């Protein structure tokens, strides 16, 4: 069995630039942030964002940044999206005008399917350039993409849909159900300047990993910067779509709530469940809520693992789990525990603790003493030895039709009644972490 060890963006520096928040989107929620600007510069702009993928197999087209609704009677449209229909995980960029074939179409050769990693995606457009390949530039993790399976560039001085008096959206298209599933952080729209990726990020001198940096940019009339610091649902400075660029171009909020705000970011990457690694390839659960929820489909065990390894002798680690399923141990069952790379399992059954409805279980892993403690509603109900060795991973299994499990590794996919961080101040849990640490890259850098 193959595993991913840790996340892709785990570098720490002496004086790091930190991103505090991201926003979680879920396929099927029809969620978006949107604004309809006055027409501005349609020939010169930059879009920069960080994305961490959630479900990979839900939604053939997952839009990160869109304008209008390409393919309909709208006059213009634009998309940057992960396209699972064309190729499993390619990035597709399309610019569209009614009555004209898509005048800009780019499909990457490379695929981007790592659910443990944050990807930095930058797209700049400068239609005045005489060389067609210089009019559209795509960067992923600091490197310009130059290899495309489909490659059609706009004519010189061709207006883009971006900058038109048409709805601009984050995480969706207008009425097309092309929901993004995953997390977005630091979304920039620059009106009137074409920037390179190096304006927004840099290579860490120690690790060689691409990381964000504080950008110094001119936003232009309609530009905006989304940091997701607020939790309100109005289109203002207190809303989830608050523009912190100083231009006050705040975005409207649709089907997003305070629980969708997350601290899983490119500078502190949290564990989630892994839609690429299963307990059995015959029984793959349905993933949602930024890979913090799984649902089974029948009388078999639908299982998966966490994205971050817990190393040996690394101390105490804590997470919580909740099921909305009334677990009776016969037609439905929920299992939570750990497994090593050799397949040795140590897990506890929810049915053994008679967990029902909104009851929350906490799990405390002691890698020094090699024990796992299970808490029900903050009361210790079991202490067991861990037989698994080496790097171990969170193991989850659901049995029975529609049995579900929600995992809180520090960014709860559900509302909680209290808030408790780990000893380093990371994560948000229902109960105190009993000196355990959240599974995130900043903690791993210190203890792992």
Q: Give the biggest sheet.
A: 8 strands, antiparallel
Counting H and I runs of at least 4 residues, what is the number of helices?
A: 1
The percent range for helix content is under 10%
**Helix-strand category:** mainly beta
Q: Overall mean pLDDT score?
A: 90
Give the number of DSSP strands. 30
* Low-pLDDT residue spans: 1-8, 10-14
What is the level 1 CATH name of the largest domain? Mainly Beta
Distance between the termini: 22 Å
Radius of gyration from the CA trace? 22 Å
* Shape verdict: elongated
Second rung of CATH, namely the architecture of the largest domain = Sandwich
Number of separate domains: 2
- CATH T-level topology of the largest domain: Jelly Rolls
User: Strand content of the residues, in percent?
Assistant: 35-45%
List the topology elements.
Layout: E1 22-25, E2 32-35, E3 44-53, E4 61-68, E5 76-83, E6 90-97, E7 100-108, E8 118-126, E9 136-140, E10 143-144, E11 148-152, E12 168-170, E13 182-191, E14 201-203, E15 210-212, E16 224-226, E17 252-254, E18 261-262, E19 273-278, E20 286-288, E21 293-295, E22 301-306, E23 316-322, E24 333-340, E25 345-349, E26 360-366, E27 371-376, E28 379-385, E29 392-399, E30 404-408, H1 441-447
Antiparallel strand pairs: 1-13, 1-18, 2-12, 2-17, 3-8, 3-13, 4-5, 4-12, 5-6, 6-7, 7-11, 8-9, 9-10, 13-16, 14-15, 19-22, 20-21, 21-30, 22-29, 23-26, 23-30, 24-25, 24-29, 26-27, 27-28
